[in-house]
C-alpha cells in the first residue's frame, strides 16, 4: 500500500508552452506522474516528444506553464498559487534533486573526490566532511581506487559512475537521469542501471531515467511513454540484471 | 569550499603561465615607459642640483640655457658677482652636438664650465674633475668613453680625464664637460674657410678699412674672431640670503632674466619635457588598453571554453557569485603573474636602455594597483557571459 509519505514526485496536469500566439509550441500537454521513493522508472519517447522539457520542469530549470509539482509531499510548483512555491531554486536543485547527464559533464579541473564533494561543499558542508561523504559513495560505486585522479584520466564507465556519485551525494529524494547510458556499451549500460537500482534502494531516491536505449528499457518495472507532450504509464518487464 | 579558480588555473597551467608572461612583457614595457619619464625628470633635476647654482642668469626674456637660445657677454659675471647676496658666479656654455666615439656618432650635450667653479658634474665616478683650462673633458658614462680616451670636438682633440654619472640633458643625451674657453670656441668660432672669407669681406668694406684710420680693420677682425659670449651665468647665493631677492635685483638693474632652482625645475618639467611626458602618457594609456583587451580576451575565451561546466555548476546549485568569483580570481591571478613578470623584465632590461630608466617603488605600487583594477574590469565581459549561461544547457534536447 502506498502512502503519501512514500511519494517522492507527483505531477498533475503539467503543461509547458514555448512562445505565444501563432508560433506557440506546446511541449507538454498535461502530464500526470507519480513516483515512489526507491523506485526507478523509465521515461521513453521519440525525439521532440517532450522528454527534456519534462526533465527541465522537474529540475526547476524552466518554469511550467500550468499544473502542479510536488517533491516529497511539498508543492514546489503550483500555477494556481502563483508558480514556484520556493524562492531559492538553486538550493532546491542542489539539496533535493540529483542530475545525471548523457555525458558525465564532470568538472575537468577537479579530481574524482572533489567532483563529488563539490555539491555538499556548495551546500555549506565542511571540506573534510564533504570529502568523507564523497569517498564513501565513490567506494560504493567501485571507483574508490581512482579517488585522487583527474576525471579526464577515467574511462567512460568510470566517469559515469562518478557522475552518479555526484547526483547522490546530497542524498536527494529525486534523481533525474538524462540518457545516462547513451555513450556506453551494453555491459556498462546495464551496470549503470543496476547501480541506479541499488542506489535507489539504499538511499530511497526516486529516479527517473530518460532513455531510448533498447538495452535497458526491459529492466524498468514501470515505464512512462511520452508522445506529443502526453504521458502514458505502462508496466515494464522489470527484468533482472545479471 | 574548493577554490575553483586555482584548480582551473592548475588544469591549464601552461597556457595560463604563457599568457601571464605575454601580459607581463607588455606590463614591463608600460613600467619602462613610466621609468623613462621618471628618468628624464630625475636626470634633469640631478644636473640642476649638481651644478651647485641657486640662480641661472640668462638673456632677458628667455627661458634659459636648455630651453631657449640665450647669449650674454662673458664679462657680466663680474658685475653679477658684486651684487648683494651673491657668493659665487661662473659662466657656462651649453650646446648640443654630434661627436665621434670609437667610430660611432654620438649625440651629446657639451657643457663649458670653469674648472673648480659652478656647473661641474655632480658625481665623478672615475678619473678626476676638470683642472686645466684647455683640451680636457669629463664625460657621462653613457657617452661610451673611458678615462684616457681622446674625443675630437671640432678642431681639437680632448683627453677624457674623468667619467660622470647621471649627467645627461633633459632629452637624455650624455653630457661632456670641457673648459669654458674651449666651449666658447666650439660654440661661436667659425671654421677656417669661413674666417678667411669673412676677413676678405670685412677688408673690402670701405667703412671698416679706412685709409686714414690705422688699426681699425685689425680691431674689427679681432672682434669677429674672438668669442666673448656665454649662454648663462650661474650664481650661488650667500647662505641665508633669499634667492628671489637676488633674482629681482638682477631683473631690475641688469636687464637680464634670472631663474631660481625651482624655476629651472619648472621649466624642465612643464616646458622642456612636457611633450615627451604627454607622448609617454599616451603610450601608457594605449598599453593599458591593450593589456586590458588581452586579459579580457583570454579570460573571455577561457570562460567560453567552460560554458558546459558553468551550466552544470549552475544546475547543481553553484551561486552566481561563486562563478563570478572564479572568473575574477583568474583575471587577478593573470594580472599578478603579469605584474611580477613585468617588474622582473623591466628591472632586467632597464640598464640596456640608452636613456636612464628610473623604476620608482611608488610607480611600481601604482602599476600593481592599476594592473589589478584593469584585470578586474577586463573580467566583467567574461563574468557577464558566464552569468548568461543557462543551466538548462546542461540538459540535452
Quantity of strands of chain A, as a count: 11
Please name the two chains that share the biggest interface, counting residues whose Cβ lies under 8 Å from a Cβ on the partner chain.
A-B, 33 and 26 residues
Per DSSP, the total helix count of chain A is 6
Question: What is the name of the CATH architecture of chain A?
Answer: 3-Layer(aba) Sandwich
Output mean pLDDT of chain B. Answer: 88
Our count of domains of chain A comes out at 1
Order of helices and strands of chain A: EEEHEEEHEHHHEHEEE
Write down how many β-strands of chain B occur, each being a DSSP E stretch of 2 or more residues. 12
Please give the share of residues in helix of chain A: 25-40%
Major sheet of chain A, described briefly?
6 strands, mixed
Please describe what this structure looks like.
- The complex is a heterodimer of chains A (242) and B (397).
- Chain A contains 6 helices and 11 strands.
- Chain A has 242 residues and is of the alpha/beta class.
- Chain A has a single domain (38-63, 88-235), classed as P-loop containing nucleotide triphosphate hydrolases (Rossmann fold, 3-Layer(aba) Sandwich).
- In chain A, a hairpin with a 4-residue loop joins strand 5 (74-78) and strand 6 (83-84).
- Chain A is globular, with a radius of gyration of 18 Å.
- Chain B is α+β, with helices and mostly antiparallel strands.
- Chain B contains 12 helices and 12 strands.
- Chain B has helices at 4-11, 13-50, 76-81, 180-188, 192-203, 216-225, 243-253, 261-272, 274-304, 307-315, 320-349, 361-388, and strands at 55-58, 72-73, 86-101, 104-113, 123-127, 136-140, 150-153, 156-165, 175-179, 229-230, 232-237, 257-260.
- At the A-B interface, helix 1, helix 2 and helix 3 of A face helix 1 and helix 10 of B.
Amino acid at each position: 500500500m502506498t502512502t503519501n509519505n512514500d511519494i517522492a514526485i507527483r505531477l498533475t496536469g503539467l503543461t509547458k508552452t514555448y512562445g505565444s500566439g501563432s508560433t506557440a509550441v506546446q511541449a507538454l500537454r498535461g502530464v500526470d506522474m507519480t513516483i515512489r521513493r526507491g523506485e526507478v522508472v523509465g521515461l521513453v519517447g521519440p525525439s521532440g516528444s517532450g522528454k527534456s522539457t519534462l526533465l527541465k520542469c522537474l529540475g526547476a530549470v524552466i518554469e511550467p506553464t500550468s499544473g502542479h509539482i510536488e517533491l516529497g509531499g511539498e508543492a514546489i510548483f503550483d500555477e494556481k498559487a502563483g508558480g514556484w512555491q520556493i524562492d531559492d531554486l538553486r538550493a532546491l536543485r542542489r539539496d533535493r534533486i540529483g542530475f545525471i547527464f548523457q555525458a558525465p559533464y564532470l568538472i575537468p579541473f577537479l579530481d574524482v573526490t572533489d567532483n563529488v564533494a563539490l555539491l555538499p561543499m556548495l551546500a555549506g558542508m565542511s571540506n573534510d566532511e564533504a570529502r568523507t561523504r564523497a569517498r564513501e559513495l565513490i567506494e560504493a560505486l567501485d571507483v574508490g581506487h581512482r579517488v585522487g585522479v583527474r576525471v579526464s584520466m577515467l574511462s567512460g564507465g568510470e566517469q559515469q559512475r562518478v557522475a552518479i556519485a555526484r547526483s547522490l551525494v546530497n542524498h536527494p529524494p529525486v534523481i533525474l537521469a538524462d540518457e545516462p547510458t547513451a555513450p556506453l556499451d551494453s555491459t556498462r549500460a546495464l551496470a549503470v542501471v543496476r547501480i541506479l537500482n541499488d542506489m535507489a534502494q539504499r538511499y530511497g531516491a526516486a529516479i527517473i531515467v530518460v532513455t531510448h536505449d533498447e538495452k535497458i528499457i526491459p529492466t524498468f518495472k514501470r515505464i512512462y511513454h511520452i508522445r506529443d507532450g502526453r504521458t502514458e504509464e505502462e508496466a515494464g518487464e522489470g527484468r533482472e540484471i545479471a | 569550499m574548493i577554490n575553483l579558480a586555482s584548480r582551473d588555473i592548475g588544469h591549464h597551467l601552461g597556457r595560463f603561465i604563457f599568457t601571464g608572461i605575454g601580459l607581463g612583457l607588455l606590463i614591463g614595457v608600460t613600467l619602462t615607459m613610466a621609468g623613462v619619464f621618471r628618468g628624464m625628470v630625475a636626470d634633469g633635476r640631478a644636473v640642476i642640483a649638481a651644478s651647485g647654482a641657486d640662480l641661472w642668469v640668462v638673456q632677458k626674456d628667455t627661458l634659459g640655457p636648455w630651453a631657449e637660445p640665450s647669449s650674454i657677454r662673458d664679462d657680466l659675471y663680474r658685475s653679477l658677482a658684486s651684487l648683494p647676496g651673491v657668493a659665487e658666479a661662473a659662466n657656462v656654455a651649453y650646446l648640443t652636438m654630434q661627436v665621434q666615439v670609437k667610430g660611432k656618432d654620438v649625440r651629446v650635450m657639451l657643457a663649458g664650465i670653469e674648472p673648480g667653479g659652478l656647473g661641474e658634474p655632480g658625481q665623478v665616478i672615475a678619473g678626476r674633475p676638470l683642472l686645466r683650462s684647455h683640451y680636457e673633458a669629463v664625460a657621462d658614462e653613457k657617452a661610451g668613453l673611458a678615462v684616457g680616451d681622446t674625443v675630437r670636438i671640432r678642431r681639437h682633440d680632448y683627453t677624457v680625464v674623468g667619467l660622470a654619472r647621471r649627467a645627461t640633458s633633459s632629452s637624455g643625451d650624455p653630457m661632456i664637460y670641457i673648459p669654458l674657453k674651449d666651449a666658447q670656441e666650439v660654440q661661436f668660432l667659425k671654421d677656417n674657410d669661413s674666417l678667411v672669407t669673412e676677413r676678405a669681406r670685412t677688408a673690402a668694406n670701405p667703412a671698416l678699412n679706412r685709409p686714414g684710420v690705422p688699426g681699425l680693420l685689425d680691431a674689427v677682425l679681432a672682434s669677429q674672431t674672438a668669442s666673448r659670449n656665454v649662454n648663462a651665468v650661474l650664481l650661488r647665493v650667500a647662505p641665508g640670503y633669499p634667492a628671489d631677492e637676488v633674482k629681482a635685483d638682477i631683473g631690475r638693474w641688469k636687464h637680464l632674466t634670472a631663474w631660481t632652482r625651482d624655476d629651472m625645475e619648472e621649466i624642465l618639467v612643464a616646458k622642456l619635457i612636457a611633450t615627451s611626458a604627454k607622448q609617454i602618457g599616451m603610450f601608457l594609456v594605449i598599453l593599458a588598453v591593450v593589456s586590458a583587451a588581452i586579459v579580457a580576451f583570454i579570460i573571455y575565451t577561457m570562460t567560453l571554453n567552460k560554458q558546459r561546466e558553468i551550466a552544470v555548476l549552475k544546475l547543481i546549485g553553484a551561486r552566481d557569485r561563486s562563478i563570478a568569483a572564479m572568473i575574477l580570481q583568474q583575471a587577478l591571478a593573470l594580472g599578478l603573474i603579469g605584474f611580477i613578470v613585468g617588474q622582473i623584465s623591466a628591472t632586467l632590461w632597464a640598464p640596456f636602455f640608452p636613456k636612464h630608466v628610473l623604476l620608482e617603488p611608488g610607480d611600481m605600487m601604482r602599476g600593481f594597483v592599476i594592473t589589478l583594477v584593469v584585470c578586474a574590469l577586463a573580467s566583467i565581459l567574461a563574468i557577464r557571459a558566464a552569468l548568461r549561461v543557462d543551466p538548462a544547457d546542461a540538459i540535452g534536447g
